[in-house]
Design a protein that fits this description.
Elements lengths: L19 H6 L2 H21 L5 H10 L7 H11 L4 H10 L14 H37 L4 E6 L2 E7 H26 L18 H12 L13 H27 L7 E2 L19 H14 L2 H6 L9 H30 L2 E2 L1 H9 L7 H12 L1 H18 L3 H7 L1 H6 L2 H7 L9 H11 L4
Antiparallel strand pairs: 1-2, 3-4
Helix pairs in contact: 2-3, 2-6, 2-8, 4-5, 6-7, 6-12, 7-9, 7-19, 9-10, 9-12, 10-12, 14-15, 15-16
Protein name: 3-carboxy-cis,cis-muconate cycloisomerase
InterPro entries: AdenyloSucc_lyase_C, Fumarate_lyase_CS, Fumarate_lyase_fam, Fumarate_lyase_N, L-Aspartase-like, Pur_lyase
Keywords: Lyase
């Protein structure tokens, strides 16, 4: 089996998609070891209730290590049986000394073991994702504090709108990620449960102590107990992938922000570049944002899997392995993609190049147009809002059509001169005077959010 590997493990893209830690969690060996862990936990739970001998449970636990099994034999048996778990159960049974093997997989069904194993892998993957999100939040909080009063143009509809601060933008980004932290924590409670339904969801094969056994196995694995069997209800995994999709969307947004701010014409922030890093094979001057581009590609690929994850919820009858097989593919790939995307973002924002001088220069390139709202609102006092809006809009139009600085046209207008002293006009055209409550908003965002 090659679950979750596909193109993600190919040598040519390893440095762009995924990361070594997440691939280590979702490789085939770790997945099979998780299944063995479930088998061992089942045996120990049964022994604790007197269902099987304690010595047999210990023997099964000792043998339930993949490095003690012949993986070549496993692969050949899988090809013959066309079954994902039976070869592993057979190998574990054969590896047990004495008659302990007779108690392997007692009362269990394939999907119980496999689904619980996937839950264990998802838990390990979520630990990594949570740690990466926490690190990114910490970095953005530091940037927000460092640049809480650093002025830059706010942009709406792709155009300069008003002055803001780079710190406020970072505070907004960390706030979004804080909500993802909450979603991860809430979703874990629903996802991290055992699957113990038995062959058809009735738990019949587990005998009269089925509920006690379920609790014992859950305790052995550090998982919760589901209220009902969930062979045909994949909403837990679907929710997990939806949350990963939300994080991926935020990741792509952050990557695109750096991509845009690093444009030659903008130059306000840029992806760090190592001394040996090559931007272009032909143009030595290029500083290509390759990490951001990798995040964009990975995030888009992951988000495209979310509809398929929702499709897995539409299972037929009491068990539907077509759904299960889809999840076998989706879970590893989505975790690997988000792990790589977040690692790239931590690299980018951890050493982000920020150019306050260019931010200020860009604020000035409109010749004061970016302060038109400030002027309009100040004129609204003596003139009324509607008249002030029409007046300033006419002045803006004249400035653009005549290719004259906004400040010059503004000062030359008799209505403006009659309504405002020249000193007031000069003050209104200072970008630093119209960043509003940006610094206070940064403080409030960081105060009201949790520091990881």
């Amino acid at each position: 089996m090659q679950l979750g590997s596909c193109f993600l493990d190919s040598l040519t893209v390893t440095s762009f998609f995924g990361n070594a830690e997440m691939r280590g969690v979702f490789n085939d060996r770790q997945l099979m070891q998780s299944w063995l862990d479930v088998e061992a936990a089942l045996a120990r739970g049964q022994a604790s209730l007197g269902i099987i001998p304690t010595a047999a449970a210990q023997a099964i636990t000792d043998a339930a290590r993949l490095d003690r099994l012949d993986t070549a034999v496993l692969a050949a048996d899988a090809a013959d049986t066309v079954h994902p778990l039976v070869p592993l159960v057979r190998a574990l049974t054969a590896a047990c000394p004495g008659d302990a093997g007779r108690y392997v997989h007692l009362g269990a069904t394939t999907q119980d073991v496999m689904d619980t194993g996937f839950v264990l892998r998802a838990r390990a993957g979520l630990d990594i994702v949570a740690r990466q999100v926490d690190e990114l939040v910490r970095i953005l909080r530091r940037l927000a504090l460092r640049h809480r009063t650093t002025p830059m143009p706010a942009r709406t509809h792709g155009q300069q709108a008003l002055p803001t601060t780079f710190g406020l933008r970072c505070a907004v980004w960390q706030s979004e990620l804080q909500r993802h932290r909450s979603r991860l924590a809430q979703m874990r409670e629903r996802l991290l449960v055992t699957s113990m339904g038995g062959a058809a969801g009735t738990m019949a094969g587990y005998g009269p102590q089925a509920f006690a056994l379920e609790r014992a196995v859950a305790a052995e694995l550090g998982l919760g107990v589901a209220d009902t069997p969930w062979h045909a209800t994949s909403d837990r995994f679907a929710e997990c992938l939806m949350v990963l999709g939300l994080i991926a969307a935020s990741a792509e947004k952050l990557a695109r922000e750096v991509y845009f701010l690093g444009r030659t014409e903008i130059g306000e922030a840029y992806e760090p570049q190592g001394s040996a890093q090559v931007g272009s094979s032909t143009m030595p001057h290029k500083r290509n944002p390759i990490r951001c581009e990798a995040v964009i590609a990975a995030a888009g690929t992951l988000r495209a899997q979310v509809p398929l994850a929702l499709q897995t919820m539409i299972a037929q009858d009491d068990r539907d392995m077509g759904v299960g097989m889809t999840l076998w593919k989706l879970l590893p790939e989505c975790f690997i993609l988000i792990g790589g995307a977040l690692e790239r973002l931590v690299e980018v924002f951890g050493d982000l190049g920020v150019n306050p001088d260019r931010m200020r220069l860009n604020l000035d390139i409109t010749g004061g147009l970016v302060l038109s709202e400030a002027v309009m609102l100040r004129l609204a006092g003596p003139l009324g809002r509607e008249q002030a809006h029409h007046l300033v809009m006419r002045i803006v139009r004249d400035s653009l059509e005549q290719n004259r600085p906004f400040a010059e046209v503004l000062r030359a207008d008799p209505q403006v001169a009659a309504a405002l002293p020249a000193a007031d006009v000069a003050g209104l055209l200072d970008p630093l005077s119209y960043v509003g409550h940006a610094a206070a908003l940064v403080d409030r965002a960081l105060l009201n959010s949790e520091s990881p």
